[in-house]
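Protocol step 4 of 5: obtain the predicted structure for the target chain.
Materials: sequence only (see below). No template structures provided, no constraints applied. The aim of this step is simply to have a reference model before the mutagenesis design in step 5. Sequence pasted as it appears in the construct record:
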Amino acid sequence: MDKREKELITRAKTGDETSFELLIEGCKTKAYNIAWRYMRNEQDALDALQESFIKVFRHLGKFKGESSFDTWVYRIVVNTCNDMLRKNSNLKIVTTIYEKEEEEPIVKVPDPGPTPWEALERKEKSQFLLDCIETLHPDQKEIIVLRDIQGFSYQELTEILDCSIGTVKSRINRARKRLKQVIMEHNEKNFV
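Step 4 output (structure tokens):
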């Protein structure tokens, strides 16, 4: 934790809202991404994020600085999402698509991105993988999302999940094996 972050935390603990906002600003994008991966819907993710930030503000006095502030926030986001999913096990996954008609561009610039077919194939593969992840046990889903999708280090995961590095590695291994099994079972069904 750097000196500036320590100062912001100290001021935020005394009720300085500007310092709190600056602290949250640095981690809100990754926190939202975590919430979205758990909730799979923008509105529910935003609700979870808002609830998490309220908890962070209320419990800031309990933050001891043993981990980075960001890691502490991510742990609260994960716990809040898990709580919301347990309470609302009937949450529906909704995907919203917005379309805008665009005018003809004045200057045409070649697009180095994928073709529409390549983009569709990539999207379908991603959706398939997310659907497979959804079938995992919540603990397995949690570790896959945090490690393989969000990219947290083993050390960060020990702090977020409040467990030893050995437990983290074991959970990752079991979750990846189960995910592989789910994918293989799906592929076997489709080729029979």
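Step 4 remarks: The first helix runs from residue 3 to 13. The radius of gyration is 20 Å.
Proceed to step 5.
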